[in-house]
Amino acid sequence: MSEITKQVEHDTNQNIQQAVEFFLHHDRIRLLDALYQKYITLGRIGGQVTLKDNRDEERREIASFLNKKFPPQSDITVRLSDFQQALAASNFACDLPELLTALFPDRPHLTNPQRREQRSQAHTQFLNALTTITQQAGPERGQRWLLAGVHGQEALFRRYKNASSQEQDQLLSTLLTVVQALDQLPQPPTYEHLAPFATRISGDPHFLDINTFSGRLFYSALHDLALLEQRIHDEPEDEEQDTQRANPSTQRHLLYYDAGLLLDTISSTIAVYNLTSASDLTGQPDAMITHANQRILILPLHQLLQWPTLTVASQDIYLFENPQVFEVVVDALQKSPSPHPTLLCTSGWPSAAAIRLLDTLLATEPTLRYHYSGDFDLQGLRIAAHLQRRYPHNLQLWHFTPDAYLSALHERGSTLNQAEIASLRHLPDEFAPLVAVMAEQGQRAYQESLLPLLVGDVLRCSTT
C-alpha cells in the first residue's frame, strides 16, 4: 500500500469518525435512524424518509446540515440523495453507507436486495446438491423416489431451502445414505432384518429406526415408492379419519416386508384353518401342518418365512376381517362333513404375516380365488380395496353389495359421519353402488349380521 493510499484511508476513517460524533447528537440521530431503515430496504441511496412530530431544535439542526428550509409545524421529508449530496459537501466528505455502518455497529448492514441475492444463491447451491444426489441414485428406487415421490427432491427442497447450512448439510448426508439403502434393498424371496441392514449401510444399527430423522426419511421413501407402485392408496384426510386405516405399526411392518426388510416377525400373525401342507426350503413337509387336521393355527411371520411352498384344501379361500365371525364359521364347518375349504382371518387390517401367507399361496398356485368379507364401514371397505389393489386377478368381494348391506342394517346401528362418507367416495369405482346406498342410509353395518350368508356359502363350498 502506497503512502498516498494510506493517507487517503486515514483521512476517510477520520472523517467517518467525526461524522459519527456529529450525528450522534439527539437532534440529528432520529434522521439517521430513518435513513438506515430506508437504505437497508432499498439497498441503494434512493427514496425519501419523513419525520413526524418534530421538535424545533431538531428541525433547525437538519435544515442547517441540508442547507434548506422546512415550513414551521410541518413534517420533515428528506431524500437520501439530498442527504448524500450534503454529506459529500460537508467537512466529513464520506458516503452514507460507510456512515451508517460506523454509526450503528451493532445492527445488520446487509441490505434486503443483498439478502435476497444471497438467499437465491444458497437455494441454487442447495438444489444443485440435491440434484447431484438424485443423478447418482439408482433409477429403480432412489432416483424414482427423489424425482416422483411425494416426499422426494421437490418436497425436500421446499422444506429445507431456508434452513441453516448446518441443517442442510445434515440432510444431504443423511439423504445420501438413505438413497444408498434404497438401492441396496434385499430382493424377495431374500429378506434381511432391519438392524443388520442398517449396520451394513451406515455402520449404525439404529440408523433406520422410526424414531430417528434418518429412519423417518427412509420410511417416507418406502411409502412413496409403494404409492408409485400402486400397492397402497392415500388420500387427504384428518386425524380422526386416519385412525380408520391400518395402525402405524402394521403399516410399517407391511412396507418393510414388501421392501425385503423384517422388523418383529413374532407379533405379526394370521389365523388359518385347514391348510393342507407347508414345505420348507429343502422341500420337506412340515409336520405341524400335516398333523394339524381341523385346528385353527395362529401363524407368525417368522414361521411363514420358512415355508416357500404352501398348499390349501380348495381353490376358493375365504378371508374374514373379524375373528369372532371366523370362529363361528369354523365351528359350523367342524360340525359338517369333510372336505372343508381353507379359511383365513386377518383380524382387521392385513398384517405382514397375512400378506406373506397370501403371497406364498399364489406363488404356489396362481389360480386361487380369494373371497374377502368385512364390515360395512370405512375400515372394512378400505381393507377390501387394499386387497383388490394387491391381488387384482385373484380377489373377489364377498357380499359387498347394496343388498347385503341393507340386510345387515340394524335399527340401533351406529351413524356414519360426513367425513367418513366423504372418504368412502374416494374408494375405487367398483364400490360406488354400495357407497351410494351407505351414504343414503348414513349408517354402519357389520359382518356379524351376515353370518347366515357366510356360513351358507362356506358350507356349500365344502360339499362341492
Characteristic key phrases:
Dna Topoisomerase Vi A Subunit, Chain: A, domain 2, alpha/beta, 22 helices, 10% strand, 464 residues, two-stranded antiparallel sheet, single chain
Describe the structure.
This protein is an alpha/beta fold and 464 residues long. The chain has three domains: 3-109, no CATH class; 119-248; 267-462, Dna Topoisomerase Vi A Subunit, Chain: A, domain 2 (3-Layer(aba) Sandwich). Helix content is 53%, strand content 10%. It has helices spanning 3-23, 29-42, 56-66, 80-89, 96-103, 112-136, 142-148, 153-160, 165-183, 194-202, 213-228, 239-242, 248-258, 287-290, 301-304, 323-334, 352-364, 378-390, 402-408, 418-424, 432-441, 451-462, and strands at 48-51, 76-79, 192-193, 261-262, 269-273, 275-279, 296-300, 309-312, 316-320, 342-345, 369-373, 395-397. The longest helix has 25 residues, at 112-136. It starts with a helix and ends with a helix. Mean pLDDT is 91; it is low at 3-8 and 236-244.
Distance from N terminus to C terminus (CA atoms, Å) equals: 105 Å
Let me know the number of strands.
12
How can the largest sheet be summarized? 6 strands, mixed
The best one-word shape is: elongated
CATH architecture of the largest domain: 3-Layer(aba) Sandwich
Helix content: 40-55%
Mean pLDDT: 91
What's the domain count? 3
Low-confidence stretches: 3-8, 236-244
